[in-house]
Amino acid sequence: MMRVVLAEDLFLLRDGLTHLLQAHGFEIVAAVESGPELLRALVERHPDVAVVDVRLPPTFTDEGLQAALAARRAIPGLPVLILSQHVEQLYARELLADGTGAIGYLLKDRVFNAEQFVDAVRRVASGGTVMDPEVIAKLLASNAVHKPLGKLTPREHEVLTLMAEGRSNAAIAARLYISEGAVGKHTASIFTKFDLAPSEDDNRRVLAVLAYLNDR
Amino acid sequence: MRTQFTALGRGVLLGLLGIRALLTSVLILTTSLLVGIGLYFLMPWALMLARGPARYARRLARDWSGIEIPEPYLPKPPPAVPQADGWYRHDRTLYKTAKVPNLHLRLQWVFSDPATWRDLLWLLWQPVVGIGVGMLPLLLISLFVLGLASGNPLLAVIGVAGALFTFLNASRAIEVHNRWSQLLLSPTRQAVLARRVRRLTETRTEATDLQAAELRRIERDLHDAVQARLVAIGLTLGATEELIDKDGNAAKALLAKTRDASAEALRELRRVVRGIHPPVLAERGLGDAVRALALDSRLDVKVDVELTGRAAAAVEAAVYFSVCELLTNAAKHSEAGQVWIDLRDGDGMLRVTVTDDGRGGADPARGSGLNGLERRLAPFDGVLAVSSPAGGPTMASVEVPLNSGCSREFKSKLPRRELLLMGICLSIAWLPTFPQGIVAGIMKLVNAEDRSWLLALYLPEAVQWPFIVAMILIGAALYSTAIFIPVNHQLREAKRKALTL
After folding, report:
1. Could you tell me the residue ranges of all domains in chain B?
2. A181 CA: distance to closest CA in chain B (Å)
3. H helices present in B1-98, as ranges
4. Do the Cβ atoms of A61 and B284 come within 8 Å?
5. Does any CB of chain A come closer than 8 Å to the CB of residue B267?
6. Backbone angles phi, psi at A106, to 5 degrees
7. Regarding the domain delimited by B285-401, which CATH topology (the fold level of the hierarchy) does it fall under?
8. Among B8, B95, B154, B203, whose CB has the most other CB atoms within 10 angstroms?
9. Would the CB atoms of B296 and A55 count as touching at under 8 Å?
10. Could you say which DSSP state residue B167 is in?
11. In whole angstroms, what is the distance from residue A100 CA to residue A75 CA?
């Protein structure tokens, strides 16, 4: 059974998430409501995955994010899924900076869709990278005037977006109603256009694309 | 040596300024006599004449001694406006044309401005101070020549020693002169306060207007976007409640719809919140907020941040939205590809510069966006400077004081003791200089019979000339003391300010 540390200051949401995760077979080892508590729980309990709200007491700034980053410095590769009311490329970069993966960054709204949310938690726990579609959209929008993205076909653009969200070829194929082989062709073409070494590993693929977009 | 010669040249220029001031004062006094025969409308014009030499003296003080003397004048009144019936009203009289009311406005403007009278006081004194301070070495040289010519060795020695001394201290004399100008030509404490009150009144009105407009916009956003969606969600939930027993599948479909609607409401709410106070700004402060802004921009933005601390939340928000606006402008109007943002603090100021490689031609006077930006910054005493020649590049910089307003220091008043001494000196200085010195000298030169009450002429022949010279020197010393007391006070103030900075 997967062990989860949960950090969320709003009681209702914390309670809801606890029920949701328990219902899907997770074990909640700690449900905390402040930054210092979170850091202690992460370092001492060493969970399989942590679900963390960015804004936590006592300062109500980016307490959760800082605690998560600190814990990942202590335990490299500790899987963390960050939840927030707003997504920022700036925070995404900081989370991805250490390059070890096992990172998720989602809007709180995504909790509404329980299946997808639980799937995201599982992917992060197994070392994958999950970025909110909005982060990807912002990333692509701010890169819109730059050359390499202009070379992509609209279909490749769609594939890239889904790929950056951390989806496997199979998932992308199902989403776009095309064959897995076609997705493979598109990804290969994207990697060629970006001058990146192609990779079959979903996670490394995502990291390569995100790093590429971040670097501009 | 070279500095002394420069200072000597400058001194001569000050002397000439003194002569110009003398001519102007004569002109003003003559005009004021014409008021007696009804030519009062010349008065504002005449009094304004004093501003010419005064402005020149302010410039000299800035260029030569680095003393910044702000212009103290009240703003020019707007021209008279006709009433609804086309007549112009002034007080209780109606006029057909604007000429007389305008004249009255002008009269009132010039007469009610304390700076007018301080200018006049400066103008009347400038011949004495300008020539006395600036041309002293030359005057003493002529004393030396006079001493040689009249065969008086004492006079010659005094002349040459004084000339040498004043020549060596010439640059200090220039500084003293400029401090003197500062004394009378800078705005009084009251004028500074009055100006500040005027400015605060203006910006307060703008700030409250702006705030009201913001609140209206937020209200509209919340009402149109969020509230409407929540109402829709409530309605759908009601429908689902009715359906749930009869048609489970339809109810499920409705619930999915409700979920989408709530996500949509959240999205809208995020947008509204961003417009009120961006979350990154609250979480990370100005530096990271600007970095986040740069990342989200469609342009290629390079950000350089050097901040030592956090500014007040309101100042940070104002600067953040300024950068936001400037970036939007760069993206929308200037066809820029690359933008550089430089954000730093120091000397009690927060500065941000946004430079782009676009086609330029932005004008705050025309662009309403830049105008709004200025209004947004005004309550914090912030200023916007835009340099945008046609063809680019555009460089806009925003400067906001970190602790707005309170830091402005007023000059301290002259201590009562010094003020008293200055008064005594001024009130008795004329006595030795004029009757006992100059008049007695003239009487002696023309060998007048009448000795009147001129003390020198009652003394033995041998000490008469030395006595007359001594009298003039005593008078000059008294005048100098009277001038030096406030000037010295200014110098002390300047030094104290330099130390505290």
Report:
1. 2-74+113-187, 195-276, 285-401, 416-500
2. 32
3. 2-34, 43-49, 51-65
4. yes
5. yes
6. -130, 150
7. Heat Shock Protein 90 (3.30.565)
8. B8
9. no
10. H
11. 11
Mutate to test the interface with B, among A82, A86, A94, A149 (most CBs of B within 10 A): A86
Residues B98/B83, Cβ–Cβ less than 8 Å: no
Taking contacts as CB-CB distances below 8 angstroms, the residues of chain B near A109 are 263, 266-267
**Cα atoms in the 13 Å half-sphere on the side-chain side of A45:** 22
Q: Which amino acid, residue A60? A: F
Measured distance CA(B210)–CA(A178) in Å, rounded: 53
Interface of A with B (CB under 8 A): 54-55, 61-62, 85-86, 88-90, 93, 107-109, 112-113, 138, 141-142, 144-146, 216
Tens digit of pLDDT at every position of chain B (501 positions): 778 888 888 888 888 999 999 999 999 999 888 888 888 888 888 888 889 999 999 999 899 888 888 888 888 888 888 888 888 888 788 888 888 888 888 888 888 888 888 888 899 888 888 888 888 888 888 878 887 887 777 778 888 888 888 888 888 888 888 888 888 888 888 888 888 888 889 889 988 998 899 899 999 988 888 888 899 899 999 999 988 888 888 898 999 889 888 888 988 899 888 888 889 998 899 999 999 998 888 888 899 999 988 888 889 999 999 999 999 888 888 888 889 999 999 888 899 999 988 888 777 666 667 888 888 888 888 889 988 888 878 899 999 988 755 445 555 677 888 889 988 988 888 888 888 888 888 888 887 777 777 888 888 888 888 888 888 889 888 888 888 888 888 788 778 777 765
User: Any idea what DSSP says for residue B355?
Assistant: E
Select from B233, B283, B296 the residue whose CB has the most chain A CBs within 10 Å, as the one to mutate to test that interface: B283
Domains of chain A: 2-131 (3.40.50.2300), 136-215 (1.10.10.10)
Q: Which amino acid, B188?
A: T
Q: Do B266 and A62 touch (CB under 8 A)?
A: no
